[in-house]
Specification:
Low-confidence stretches: 7-27
Number of domains: 1
Shape: globular
Oligomer: single chain
Number of strands: 16
């Protein structure tokens, strides 16, 4: 409960502070121009990006991770193994998004809320960066053979994340995205609470193509068999679809999974090929 109280307090603080920022960047008669598409997607690779859905947009996301490439031809370079996550994110307003998802890895269910506190802009009342607050939870439903069996509370974890992002130019964008994760009953010898500062980068090669980088460094609390998640990828935009092709050492596709259970060393060859497919549906008209 103390962790949940902290998450709720942070969310409510953000919700009450946000209108103050909005008033400073939306004064009538100003020439303020908001900066959009800092990244091509609401996710960098693993991490949430500073970008938001527009009001009335439904983002159907299908994520896949395959096995380690270094397993060789007998495992078809990892393609014989696969885990996936299907998610549905919806823009309640231009500054407020909610999402749910289901992963085959540990049969996890997850949900999140995402609120933009302020948006980067130029002009009379310029804002140097965008600031976004995210909070979510996960529960794993995989059958456990442990004795005693874990309770429903033991299977829960929670996270809160603050994302500060900036579009430096038409080509280069970056963000700093520290995250706090609490697990009620972590596996192995992991700590209940972990803090992981992260960075995300995007370099636009062309109008439809961008290179991406996503890394989180867990400061302390991981067991000896877990490592820091890293991803390198390519974003391809094709109409209403965004294909994110990437290489990563992470298996899981939610914050608990890729922070607590990344078991491979990227620079030792423990690399998984994967992709994220995002399809935007406009549920409401005039959703800007």
């Amino acid at each position: 409960m103390p962790v949940m109280k902290k998450i709720i307090l942070l969310l409510w603080t953000g919700i009450f502070i946000a209108p103050c920022f909005a008033q400073t960047i939306e004064l009538p008669g100003s020439n303020t121009q908001k900066v959009s598409t800092t990244f091509k997607s609401t996710r960098v690779i693993m991490s949430h990006s500073v970008d938001m859905l527009h009001k009335g947009e439904l983002d159907v996301r299908i994520l896949h991770r395959f096995g380690y490439i270094n397993k060789g031809i007998n495992n078809f370079f990892g393609l014989d193994e696969a885990s996936m996550r299907m998610g549905f994110d919806y823009g309640i307003t231009k500054n407020f998004t909610v999402g749910i998802g289901r992963s085959t890895y540990r049969k996890e269910l997850d949900g999140f809320i995402k609120y933009r506190l302020m948006q980067q802009s130029s002009g009379n009342h310029a804002m140097p960066l965008s600031l976004v607050l995210v909070a979510g939870s996960t529960v794993w439903t995989e059958k456990s053979f442990a004795t005693p069996k874990p309770s429903a509370a033991d299977r829960m974890s929670y996270y809160v994340q603050l994302i500060a992002g900036k579009k430096f130019s038409d080509k280069l964008s970056g963000q700093f995205n520290p995250v706090f994760v609490h697990s009620n009953a972590p596996l192995h010898a992991d700590a209940r609470n972990i803090i992981a500062p992260g960075i995300g980068l995007k370099y636009r090669v062309s109008k439809k193509l961008a290179l991406t980088f996503d890394y989180l460094h867990v400061l302390k609390g991981l067991s000896s068999i877990s490592y820091h998640p890293l991803g390198i990828g390519v974003d391809i935009e094709t109409g209403g679809h965004i294909f994110q092709l990437h290489f990563s050492n992470a298996t899981g596709m939610n914050e608990r999974a890729f922070l607590y259970e990344t078991y491979g060393k990227f620079f030792s060859g423990d690399i998984r090929f994967g992709f994220n497919l995002s399809r935007i549906f406009h549920i409401r008209k005039n959703s800007n």
